[in-house]
Design brief:
- By secondary structure, the protein is of the alpha+beta class.
- The protein has one domain.
- The protein is 46% helix and 19% strand.
- The strands form two sheets. It has a six-stranded antiparallel beta sheet, with helices on both faces. A two-stranded antiparallel sheet has the order 5-6.
- Helix 5 packs antiparallel against helix 6 and helix 7 packs antiparallel against helix 8.
- The chain is globular.
- 37% of the residues are buried.
- The mean pLDDT is 87.
Length: 251
């Protein structure tokens, strides 16, 4: 009886995964428009997935944004501890941008920006909206710089009492009272990617405000099925493990 119940549950889950599967959806836009991409690496972050945002200007040059934890280790993050995050930003020429979209291989020497990416949702945006997306990174960069400066003071300080004060200040920063922080369950790479992109897309903003999935794969599929004004593309060839993750990760 127990085996039968398990089998039924597995079949139901497989059917649910099948219903969430994304199909390639081509969208054509004027060449003079800028572009916005919400991109997922299915097997990034040790199989949990990793999301980035890319904006492309009128000349075809891409700028990529990737948010990650910096202050806490992965284990501390999994335990729910928040901390200052790192906003990695990389730029590419038009040829490099086109090559990335064709292959999925990103080659920028920064955190999570040298990797292979798998699926992208995309839409056109105006030059003004392009600037709006770029501006969203400012609070994250400011928090990172403040943490880096304070951390350097803590490392160099020799006075025990002063060093303890710096340590306490670093811990307070990680609690996020005055600046944005990385929290793996509430404000992770995928959530921040959607926040940046939703600054110019009301449909994604509504999804982010009212829907919550645990993994980048789950979110890109759930939103992609609703967002009819977004195109969907695969980047390069997916490996077997990437296909499995993209199919079974729906939460």
């Amino acid at each position: 009886m127990r085996k039968k119940v398990i089998l039924i549950l597995l079949v139901m889950y497989a059917v649910l995964c099948l219903s969430m599967r994304l199909s390639v959806r081509d969208m054509s836009y004027p060449e003079e428009d800028c572009m916005l991409y919400y991109i997922v690496n299915a097997d990034g972050m040790r199989g949990l997935g990793h999301s980035i945002v890319m904006v492309v200007d009128e000349k075809g040059c891409g700028t990529v944004f990737s948010y990650n934890g910096m202050q806490r280790s992965l284990w501390e993050s999994l335990l729910g501890r928040s901390g200052i995050g790192k906003m990695s930003i990389g730029t590419m020429t038009a040829d490099e941008t086109d090559a990335f979209l064709q292959s999925g291989d990103l080659h920028i020497d920064q955190d999570q920006l040298t990797d292979n990416y798998d699926v992208a949702l995309y839409r056109s945006i105006t030059a003004k909206e392009y600037r709006v997306v770029v501006e969203q990174a400012a609070p994250y960069l400011a928090a990172e710089q403040q943490f880096t400066d304070l951390y350097a003071k803590w490392v160099m300080e020799e006075n025990t009492d002063k060093k303890a004060e710096y340590k306490q200040a670093l811990e307070r920063m990680g609690q996020g009272d005055d600046q944005p922080v990385y929290q793996i369950y509430k404000n992770n790479c995928d959530h921040v990617a959607r926040l940046l992109a939703s600054s110019v897309d009301s449909e994604l903003r509504d999804y982010t405000d009212h829907t919550w999935r645990m993994t980048p794969n789950g979110n890109v599929k759930a939103f992609g099925r609703k967002a009819e004004n977004w195109g969907m593309m695969t980047l390069g060839e997916q490996s077997l493990s990437e296909r499995i993750l993209m199919f079974f990760m729906i939460f």
